[in-house]
Amino acid sequence: MSETIISADVVDKDNLARAAELKRDYDALGERLDRRGIAVDAIRGKVEKFAVAIPSWGVGTGGTRFARFPGAGEPRDIFDKIEDCAVIRQLTQATPTVSLHIPWDTADPNRLKQAASRFGLGFDAMNSNTFSDASDQKLSYKFGSLSHADAGTRRQAVEHNLECIEIGKKLGSKALTVWIGDGSNFPGQVNFAKAFERYLDAMKEIYAGLPDDWKLFTEHKMYEPAFYSTVVQDWGTNYIIAKELGDKAFCLVDLGHHAPNVNIEMIVSRLIQFKKLGGFHFNDSKYGDDDLDAGSIDPYRLFLVFNELVDAELAGAEGFDPAHMLDQSHNVTDPIESLMLSAVEVQRAYAQALLVDRQALEGYQDANDALMATQTLKAAYRTDVEPILAMARLNTGGAIDPVATYRAAGYRAKVAAERPAVAGGGGGIV
Ligand SMILES: [Mn+2]
């Protein structure tokens, strides 16, 4: 039995105050869905099994290019971060794993394993970092890492990724995510083809060090920190990488890493069709890589992404097993609250997508009935599935209202007293 951080009394008290109303709402929704031929308990069962990983860096306060305003009680190290992740897990019951970032989270693997298993947490994908310089690093990544013009710098970046795999093996992780900041700020600064060739050669060395039961995720990003070109700029390049490397290589889609208005759900469909969808970094954005909370700006887009995912899930698409992770930066909110609500938003999009009448949709598509086809999606999206999500949390030991329970528990004030403010703190945007 794993330990919990928020007292069971606090969780039970808040749940008790809400349980009767929730039951009524859940039953009413069940009756409505029943008329549509959908069993509410079946949807709830799927939601209960749905999991999304928490990025270790997400529990720290983020920042912008202009400033970072630290929050109270920020985690001082990975062990504090694991405790914050345990709170998110306890109250949402949707986040059983933590994704580590090396070297930010470097610590004795046995201690890490112990700290996580105390709260029933596991480890998701390992994330390497060759987009910033560590204090003890010999060669700088200012002008790139895996695609750097200098062979010694590339070697150092490859070795770092291989070290991340070794650490991950000790922790029980099964994937490595590689995102690089390599690119250029000015036309002519970099030879596109040569830089990509160097990158591919370096990635092949990393891929060769990957255990058989591991996956390698590469993450594309259109711009930033490089503002003119990036080496892995879009899903097309990402697909080429995954194809070049082999069967264990997959594309990771970070929702914020595309040009505005790009049809991300269609990219998702393409990657599924050609068996190269590795997983997601969920977040939301208005203008660029804003790293806002999932579903906060365009929840319909999140639903449309999940519509593709559920379509593949129900069709039993071969090898379909995408990894789900949040990747957000919290500048003005309590990171724990933002991450809890984002986990819920991702679950919400999943539940709504499960409600799509796929048989009817296919009929409308075949009949070229554009209006009814799109209304079929809207009918699912408009359904308020909150009672399903809340009931799933209640059933699995979580909180009906995670933020209310979290605030009632006074966790932030408690850790603010225990954790003196530190400089840095490792908040980041990846
Ligand atoms: Mn990301």
UniProtKB/TrEMBL annotation:
Domain of life where this protein originates: Bacteria
UniProt keyword annotations, A-Z: Isomerase, Manganese, Metal-binding
Pfam families noted in UniProt: AP_endonuc_2
Domain Xylose isomerase-like TIM barrel: 100-290
Coiled-coil ranges (or none): none
GO MF term set: isomerase activity; metal ion binding
TM region(s), chain numbering: none
UniProt-listed SUPFAM superfamilies: Xylose isomerase-like
PANTHER family named among the record's database cross-references: L-RHAMNOSE ISOMERASE
Protein name (record): L-rhamnose isomerase / sugar isomerase
Annotated organism of origin: Mesorhizobium muleiense
Organism lineage string: Bacteria, Pseudomonadati, Pseudomonadota, Alphaproteobacteria, Hyphomicrobiales
